[in-house]
Amino acid sequence: MSDFRPLSAQFSVAPQIGLDDIAEARAQGFALIVNNRPDGEEPTAPQGAEIGHAAAAEGLAYAAIPIGHAGFSHAQIDALDALMADATGPILAYCRSGTRSTHLWALARARAGDDVDAICNAAAKAGYDLTGLRLMLDALAGGK
């Protein structure tokens, strides 16, 4: 059973998806799948190429913005911003637990000037705690 958790009307996150989740993502109206998990992180999980091929077979776009142990960078936030700007419909992002995907979305939204309390509330509603990122989110939002 798919575990897609909405953060906004246009962006949801999920723990590691399987190939069978791709058809469900299409059925739920997603247009793009974003992989935030580096290939090889978990060798038994479907790797990026497998997910990408399955997404293409279902008519979904696929992109990878891997986030490893080094953490987040402005380049990764830029990449997500570009994908969100160009998306033709809702986005589903995934990683091992959904946390990195949620964090990347939160950083991008804060940098775009969204209300940080609203970002944190959306994440909490989806089961993700942004307390550890709060200072960074506030800094990126520039007090907006």
From TrEMBL:
Record-linked Pfam families: BLH_phosphatase
Residues annotated as signal peptide: none
Lineage: superkingdom: Bacteria
All copies of domain Beta-lactamase hydrolase-like protein phosphatase-like, residue ranges: 3-111
NCBIfam families xrefs: TIGR01244 family sulfur transferase
Name under which the protein is recorded: TIGR01244 family phosphatase
